[in-house]
Amino acid sequence: YYRCSWSSDSSDSVISSESGNTYYRVVLIGEHGVGKSTLASIFAEVPDSLDSEMLSENTYERTLMVDGESATLILLDMWENKSQDNWMYDHCMQVGDAYLIVYSITDRASFEKASELRIQLRRARQTEDIPIILVGNKSDLVRCREVSISEGRACAVVFDCKFIETSAAVQHNVKELFEGIVRQVRLRRDSKEK
Ligand code: GDP
Ligand code: MG
C-alpha cells in the first residue's frame, strides 16, 4: 500500500530494538516564540516516564507507555537554529518520522506560518504519509486569543493532519500531545503491515 509506506530514504529511521521498543524521531517546527522549547522541556521532565534523557542540546529522549506498548520518542527542537542555514532546514524537513507544527493561538501570523510549513513539508516529503499534529499552543491566554479552535480544526482538516490545543504554561494537553503522536505513527505502521 504505497501511500502509507515509508520511503526508502526513511525506512531505516524507525528502529525496532530487540525488546520490541520502537524509536520515533519527532521534530518541532513553527514560528519563533510559539512555545516549542517550552513544550520540549516539559516532555523531557514528565515524571512518570519510564526513562528520560537529554541526548544533546535541543534533543530529548523519553520512553512512554501508550496503549500498553512502550515507545521512545526522540524530540528534536532545532528549528530555531536553522536561521540562514539551508542545511539545517533540509535536515529538519528530512529527519522526522513525525512532526509537530506549532503555532500560538495568540498570534495569527504564527498560524499562517503553520500552513506554510505544512505545504513545505508536503513538498519535501512528497511520497510519504507523515504523521503531523497541528498544535495550537498558549491556550491559557484566553483573553489574547487571535485564532479560534474551529479555525485550527478546519486548518487541520484541509491539511489532513491531527489537531490539538495545548498550554505549555499550565501543562494542559501536553501529555496527550505526545501520546497522540505515538498513536499517529503506529496507525501508519499498522496499515503498512497489512
Ligand atoms: P519557541 O521560540 O517556539 O521555542 O518558544 P519558547 O518555548 O521559547 O516560548 C516563548 C515564550 O512563550 C516564553 O516566554 C514562554 O514562557 C512562553 N510560553 C510558551 N508556552 C506558553 C503557554 O502555553 N502559555 C503561555 N502563557 N506562555 C507560553
Ligand atoms: Mg525555542
Automatic annotation (TrEMBL):
At the top level, the lineage of the source is Eukaryota
Record keywords, A-Z: Calmodulin-binding, GTP-binding, Nucleotide-binding, Phosphoprotein
Q: What family name appears in the similarity comment?
A: Belongs to the small GTPase superfamily. RGK family.
How does this protein assemble? Interacts with Calmodulin.
Q: What is this protein called?
A: GTP-binding protein
From which source organism is this entry? Staurois parvus
Question: Lineage, please?
Answer: Eukaryota, Metazoa, Chordata, Craniata, Vertebrata
Tell which residues of the whole protein are contained here. 55 to 248 of 296
